[in-house]
Amino acid sequence: MRSIWLTAIGVALIGLLLPGYGGTxxxxxxxxxxxxxxxxxxxxxxxRPDPVVVEAGERVRLLLTATDTTHGxxxxxxxxxxxxxxxxxxxxxxxxxxxxxxxxxxxVYCGPGHQGMRARLIVR
Length: 124
Ligand SMILES: [Cu+2]
Prior knowledge:
Elements: H1 2-17, E1 30-32, E2 35-43, E3 46-48, E4 52-54, E5 59-66, E6 71-75, E7 80-84, E8 90-95, E9 100-105, E10 118-123
Parallel strand pairs: 2-5, 4-10
Antiparallel strand pairs: 1-2, 2-3, 5-8, 6-7, 9-10
The protein binds copper (II) ion (CU).
């Protein structure tokens, strides 16, 4: 019984500590011919994967699909603002800016959770 509690406490501690390792997150997607390609989904009310982690200065190509209704995909700092239509893949390519965390957000009203439809682009 005691070991079960110790295991539970151990798991809880790991859970608390993991979010602190922000700088060691794995890079997202795969590099194909020098471009980091990331498949992404937009849905009510978020994006998958979240966060998207890339390296500063690399070329990034996001292949986006809206799975339920029309959504937007915007990153202010990169002057990206695109509309995602269901059933169509939207390709967004850019050069990753300097290290930092950038907010991805929806610019097409998609329901009551629209204001909170966000994800993070982490450049490291
Ligand atoms: Cu939206």
